[in-house]
Amino acid sequence: MNVYRVYPSASRPTEMLFVAFNQDSGCFACGTDSGFRIYNVDPFKETFKRNFNNGIGIVEMLFRCNLLALVGGGNSPRYPPNKVMIWDDHQNRCVGELSFRSDVRAVKLRRDRVVVVLATKVYVYRFSDLKLLDQIDTQPNPRGLVALCPHPKHNVLACPGVTRGHARVELYDARKSTVVAAHESDLARLALSGDGSLLATASDKGTLIRVFDAHSGAQLREFRRGVDRALVYSIVFCPETKYLACSSDKGTVHVFNLKSEGGRVVAPNASSNRLAPYVEDHASQNNQKSHLAFLRKVVPGGLAAAYLESEWSFAQVRGVHAPTICAFGKTPNTVVSVGADGAFLVSRFADGGECERVAFHRFIKSKEEEEFDVPPWEDPRTFGPGGPLHTPPKPPEPGQPFIDPKAGTISAKPPADLPTPHERDAPSDDAPAAPPPA
User: Fold this and answer.
1) Which terminus of the chain is less hemmed in, N or C, by CB atoms within 10 Å?
2) Residue 132 CB coordination number (10 Å)
3) pLDDT, tens digit, for every residue of 389-404?
4) Distance between CA 435 and CA 438 in Å, rounded?
């Protein structure tokens, strides 16, 4: 996700310019105003940070290896925005370069290919020598939409077609190209399953997610994200092709069950129906239906009937306010959300409904948090001219906790012999009383 395009420069909450998962969603990379960072998903931790003192607008990983694709970005870009630099972090230098006449919109990698997206073109290069193999004309593509299957035995690429609302799927192994009439309006997002057999799309209306057979172009399923118009930020299949998730500017991550029993398969008799082997009986994870679904027998065909037959998500992560991308976690029945505000969230959806939040980290602080990242006794928001207290307290003695005058709570790290936070919440009868506020 290109954060720099989502937010105007002045309102960007953090220094982040770009964020994207790697091919197996085990890591994610962030481009920032000063370089790039790599984070591991499970367990969560920052694994690498490269400081250039200049902006990186796109950073695309190749699984977990030392090669990355970089494009400059931000107000002070490290590289021109019309160049793709192949960066070898072991050698700490660029080992390849691709130049274009217009700005690069997106880059995708697999072990044998480099795919570069421009405003109306998609270029495919061989990774080993950067030889041009294919070029594809597209509709105007300001979002840089493209999907590349990372599976070594399935060389599949999907991008917008030359007709509005159409997607083009290139099956390079079969030397076949499929055009999918996905939507009537412009495409907003598309994604391929891990083996390249399924294509999921959303339009700029953002109300429907449609799933197609990538080989035949037949529509297999149709999921309803919501009724109101929305901007879809990401669509992702789980590795087993059992679930599909999407995030949008409505602040909710939706999880759909591709194997939901009784789900509406649009092409049930198609020989290419690749969802048929996946139908299982998990009643708690069946996609929801409209509360008015009982009327579908009396409502004539058309838009109303289609709405009544819609499948809604069976699980949701709500309250995700910043632009967010999502992926499925290594732990079963978990979805990972990474926001443009620097928020990392893991949620569990085993039983459907509202997801249980199991982990949260703030991996990049906002500009305000960076500005006020000071000890409490130096915090101008509390003890400055406009703060509630005008006389700052003295810093604590070494090894002693700091007592916040506002609340009488321990704010600094306590010494090792003090009770843990859980012990403080339920003190024993002989526990020493907390000192009174200063």
Assistant:
1) C
2) 12
3) 444 555 555 555 444 4
4) 9
Structure tokens at 320: 């995700």
| Band (7; pLDDT cuts 50, 70, 90) | low
CA separation for the pair 175, 157 (Å, rounded): 12
Instruction: Estimate to the nearest angstrom the gap between the alpha carbon of 169 and the chain centroid.
Output: 22
Backbone φ and ψ for 134, nearest 5 degrees, come out as: -160, 150
**In degrees, to the nearest 5, what angle opens at C-alpha 210 toward C-alphas 107 and 3?**
35
C-alpha 171, offset from chain centre = 26
Contacts of 371 (CB under 8 A, 6+ apart): none
Backbone conformation region of residue 35, classed left if phi is above 0, alpha if psi is from -120 to 50, else beta: left
Residue type, 60: E
DSSP calls for 282-293: -GGGSPEE-TTG
Q: What are phi and psi of 285, to 5 degrees?
A: -115, 15
Q: Are 83 and 71 in contact (CB under 8 A)?
A: yes
Contacts of 384 (CB under 8 A, 6+ apart): none
CA distance 114 to 95: 14
Q: Which two tokens stand for residue 283?
A: 């009643």
Pairing status of strand 311-312 against strand 219-224 = parallel
Q: In what order do the strands lie in the sheet with 67-72?
A: 56-61, 67-72, 83-88, 93-99
3-state secondary structure of 136: strand
Strand partners, 88: 67, 93
Cα–Cα distances (Å) from 397 to 271, 387, 389, in that order, read 75, 24, 21
Distances (CA, A) of 179 to 108, 124, 146: 21, 18, 14
In the beta sheet, which residues pair with residue 105?
none
Token pair recorded at residue 182: 């996905």
User: What is the per-residue pLDDT across 119-150, written as a single tens digit (0 to 9) for each?
Assistant: 999 999 999 999 999 999 999 999 999 999 99
Beta bridge partners of 255: 245, 315
CA distance 76 to 395: 39
Contact 342, 361 (CB under 8 A): no
Task: Return the amino acid letter for 190.
Answer: L
Average pLDDT, the chain: 80
Residue 18, φ and ψ in degrees, nearest 5: -160, 145
